[in-house]
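Listing S7. Sequence submitted for prediction.
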Amino acid sequence: MDLTSAHWRKSSYSGGNGGTCVEVSTNLSGIVAVRDSKNPTGPALTLTPGEWRTFLHEIKTANHDLG
């Protein structure tokens, strides 16, 4: 998938300490792309806008055991 025209923005939850950060691009037609900000030339996860909304909803509302 060609992501060269993607406009990336860092998550508002990412700190400025150089730690684990996520960037997202929502300007591409029909997809939302997500990548690791420390590896901008690495792989990106692509989702449909509906999948992205579902993902965000689950993150915000579910009680996940991430440990």
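Caption to Listing S7: primary sequence and predicted structure tokens for the chain studied. The longest helix spans residues 49-61. The first strand starts at residue 9 and ends at 10.
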